[in-house]
Amino acid sequence: MAGYWDGPEGEQCPQRTWLATRVGAAAGLVGAAYRIILLRPGSALAALQTAAADSVTMATLGAVFGLSTCLSAQVREEPEDPLNYFIGGCAAGAVLGVRAHSYLTGTTACLGFGITAALMKIGNKEGWRLMGPPKL
């Protein structure tokens, strides 16, 4: 996602949305591969349907996140605010709840994705690192 963080927030919405969609689709493919290996569908067609459904769902979540984040940055006129990322994550979580036909899933995913996305933004702004040697 290196290209996602390049440039000011709230600009280049189509490029940011496309990048988030591609990352979501890739994550969906990886998740589908694990699901197919662990749950062993009955036929090759069932495996293909599972892979397609999982990839499309994750790509949709990525697109919703990218678009919601970018549009909220434009509308709110506060491009560097982590609240934009919370809004994007919450919107993606709500879509997941709609896909699952569950209010509980949507609410939980909204909060989980929103908080995670906001923390990612805060960490990126402040230079947090997940891996590698510590900065001294």
* Spatial extent as radius of gyration: 16 Å
Helix and strand run: HHHH
**Classification by helices and strands:** mainly alpha
Question: Major sheet: size, sense and barrel closure?
Answer: none
Poorly predicted sequence stretches spanning 5 or more consecutive residues: none
Mean pLDDT: 92
Q: Return the domain count.
A: 1
The amount of helix comes to over 70%
Distance between the termini: 25 Å
> What overall geometry do the principal axes of the alpha carbons give?
globular
Oligomer status: single chain
Strand content: under 5%
Count of helix runs? 4
Counting DSSP E segments of at least 2 residues, the number of strands comes to 0
What does it look like?
It is a single chain. The protein is built from 4 helices and no strands. The model has no long low-confidence stretch (mean pLDDT 92). The two termini are 25 Å apart. The chain has helices at residues 13-39, 44-76, 82-100, 103-126. It is mostly helical and 136 residues long. The protein is globular. The protein has one domain.
